[in-house]
From TrEMBL:
InterPro entries: Ankyrin_rpt, Ankyrin_rpt-contain_sf. This is Uncharacterized protein. Keywords: ANK repeat, Repeat, Signal. Residues 1-20 form the signal peptide. Gene3D superfamilies: Ankyrin repeat-containing domain (1.25.40.20). ANK repeats lie at residues 24-56, 57-89, 90-122, 123-155, 156-188, 189-221, 225-254, 255-287, 291-320, 324-353, 357-386, 420-452, 453-485, 486-518, 519-551.
Length: 658
């Protein structure tokens, strides 16, 4: 310890900041307090350490010492003026920290020194809830005797009774109830004490609460009611008890909306049997999975699926994210359940749910055997619907060659239009599924088919820089200058991944450098905005029109002047060089139009001094106070550049629908 003190003394004498903030413990005083280094604490205080400095998990030194059970340090800090009720940190205050950790001696000391027993804040809301959750019966007794509000609301568990009920601390629950805790008080994660105990699995506490008048059907909390909470976690004995005591089996609420769906999802077969025997509505619609059968099918609970079907579950009931039980089972690859549902009359071609139908769900999920079963049983291979339009597109997107092959063999329409990617070839191209692209092309896929977000397969492949697929599509006759899609054409699409090699390939193959369309209007403007100096230079050398106008920024020069340091310059893009290239090749420095009106106004709006200076040096006209500039906030002026006349520090009207 002596050596440690000497080191600290030397550091402080050499100018170390005794109140420096940072690190796991926030500051030196809090670290020493946590570890109970009383002599170090004394030295730091003598050297000017801020005793109430805030920071880190524990908030301040007193809370750190209280949490760690360092009674000597706690006394020292209090003697030196530590704020006993200071708020902050995970545990809110020193009393709550000590109560949570079961530091009885420190709790007594803090209470004696005037700690506010009912102070609110921190993870557990107050000291009583913290002690109740932590399981310290003696501290709970002490706090109650000293006037703690038994029914105070706040914190993760809402109140002390719910905290103790969740953790299964029976003696504390009894004590709180005897002292007047409101058994049916609402609040916290589990809504009330009964739901907390049911979830936590304490049968004795559940019995006690019910005997003391807990509302067995109270609705609140994450699970809606006590029965659903117990069913969710498979608390069979508690479920029996609640049902015997009158729990509403079909009560609605919570993520699964009823106890049967909760039990079905989690595979609690005995609870499912019990609930069904007691009259649970087997076809109740609502909740995360629509109904109990879909929940069980989704999770692969084969025995529960059999039981529900035997008891009359509607196999074709619609609802939930997967639309029906068959789609849910198909997506997750539950082959036995799929066969069972089909045998029992499930509609193979039912349309609904996230994936449109069971075949598309299985195709997307990569379940080859289920795809075979569904096709053999009459699934419509070309059925439309869902995010991928059809099963072939879904399988192509996911890269499941083994599913694509049988679908094509079974005469799936290889050029069917629909879905996010327009067709199967575009989906496979976008995801870089080279073997599937080859297969689809061999089987007659229309390489130039239009549709989908990217317009065609070539643009889709370019957006993901799938060089081999790009080459394949070009070799097979892809129209390099086809217009459409987000990027307008292939050349502009190639720039979203900034592949100079692919850009050169497209130009060599005849791409129209000055083609208009897409988000950035043309390839040069896209490259200029993206900071692709080498590509800008290449395009200009190949005849790109530097003054062609269109789209958001009007010209390539204005697009380059939009550069923000935080967005681009930290990636090593040389916008000054890029602007020089454009100007040296005839870019009109005073061109009008686009979002910011002119290149220099774009630079000024973005606050880019270097670009602004370059433009002024190259002869740009000063900002025209009369010229209308499109600006998000009419009350915000342009940044005043170093060489800009003061009268150009102007406010501009809003015209943002450019």
């Amino acid at each position: 310890m002596a050596n440690l003190l000497n080191v600290i003394w030397i550091l402080v004498e050499e100018g170390a900041n005794v109140n420096a903030q940072g690190g796991e413990w926030g500051n030196a005083l809090q670290a020493a307090s946590h570890w109970g280094r009383s002599e170090v604490v004394r030295l730091l205080l003598e050297k000017g350490a801020d005793i109430n400095a805030q920071g880190s998990q524990y908030g301040n030194a007193l809370r750190a010492a209280s949490y760690g059970g360092r009674s000597e340090v706690v006394r020292l800090l209090l003697e030196k003026g530590a704020d006993i009720n200071a708020q902050g940190g995970q545990y809110g205050n020193a009393l709550q920290a000590a109560s949570y950790r079961g530091r009885e001696e420190i709790v007594k000391l803090l209470v004696e020194k005037g700690a506010d027993i009912n102070a609110q804040g921190g993870q557990y809301g107050n000291a009583l809830q913290a002690a109740s959750y932590g399981g310290s019966e003696e501290i709970v007794k002490l706090l109650v005797e000293k006037g703690a509000d038994i029914n105070a609301q706040g914190g993760y568990h809402g109140n002390a009774l719910q905290a103790a009920s969740y953790w299964g601390t029976e003696e504390i629950v009894k004590l709180l109830v005897e002292k007047g805790a409101d058994i049916n008080s609402q609040g916290g994660q589990y809504g009330n004490a009964l739901q907390a105990a049911s979830y936590g699995g304490s049968e004795e506490i559940v019995k006690l609460l019910v005997e003391k008048g807990a509302d067995i059907n109270a609705h609140s909390g994450f699970y809606g009611n006590a029965l659903q909470a117990a069913s969710h976690l498979g608390r069979e004995e508690i479920v029996k008890l609640l049902v015997e005591k009158g729990a509403d089996i079909n009560a609605q609420g919570g993520p699964y909306d009823n106890a049967l769906q909760a039990a079905s999802y989690w595979g609690n077969e005995e609870i499912v049997k019990l609930l069904v025997e007691k009259g649970a509505d087997i076809n109740a619609q609502s909740g995360l999975y629509g109904n109990a059968l879909q929940a069980a099918s989704y999770e692969g609970r084969e025995e529960i699926v059999k039981l529900l079907v035997e008891k009359g579950a509607d196999i074709n009931a619609q609802g939930g994210p997967y639309g029906n039980a068959l789609q849910a089972a198909s997506y997750w690859g539950n082959e036995e359940i799929v066969e069972l549902l089909v045998e029992k009359g499930a509609d193979i071609n039912a349309q609904s749910g996230l994936y449109g139908n069971a075949l598309q769900a299985a195709s997307y999920g990569g379940s080859e055997e289920i795809v075979k079963i569904l096709v053999e049983k009459g699934a419509d291979i070309n059925a439309q619907g869902g995010p991928y339009g059809n099963a072939l597109q879904a399988a192509s997107y996911e890269g499941s060659e083994e599913i694509v092959k049988p679908l094509v063999e079974k005469e799936a329409d290889i050029n069917a239009q629909g879905g996010q990617y327009g067709n199967a070839l575009q989906a496979a191209s976008y995801e870089g599924r080279e073997e599937i692209v080859k297969l689809l092309v061999e089987k007659g896929a229309d390489i130039n088919a239009r549709g989908g977000y990217h317009g065609n397969a070539l643009q889709a492949a370019l957006c993901r820089a799938s060089e081999e697929i790009v080459k394949l599509l070009v070799e097979k006759g892809a129209d390099i200058n086809a217009q459409g899609g987000y990027h307008g054409n292939a050349l502009q699409a190639a720039l979203c991944r900034a592949s100079e090699e692919i850009v050169k390939l497209l130009v060599e193959k005849g791409a129209d450098i000055n083609a208009q369309g897409g988000y950035h209007g043309n390839a040069l403007q896209a490259a200029s905005y993206g900071g692709e100096t080498d590509i800008v230079k290449f395009l200009v050398e190949k005849g790109a029109n530097v003054n062609i106008e269109g789209c958001k920024y009007g010209t390539a020069l204005q697009a380059a002047c939009v550069a923000k340091e935080k967005d681009h310059c930290d990636h090593g893009f040389d916008y000054l060089k890029q602007i020089e290239i454009l100007l040296n090749n005839g870019a009109d420095i005073n061109s009008r139009g686009g979002r910011y009106g002119s290149p220099i106004q774009a630079a000024a709006f973005q606050g880019n001094q270097e670009i602004f200076d370059l433009l002024m040096q190259r002869g740009a006209a000063a900002i025209d106070p009369i010229f209308t500039v499109f600006q998000e906030d009419s009350k915000t002026p342009f940044p005043l550049m170093d060489n800009e006349p003061a009268d150009h520090h102007i406010y501009c009207p809003v015209f943002w629908n450019m």
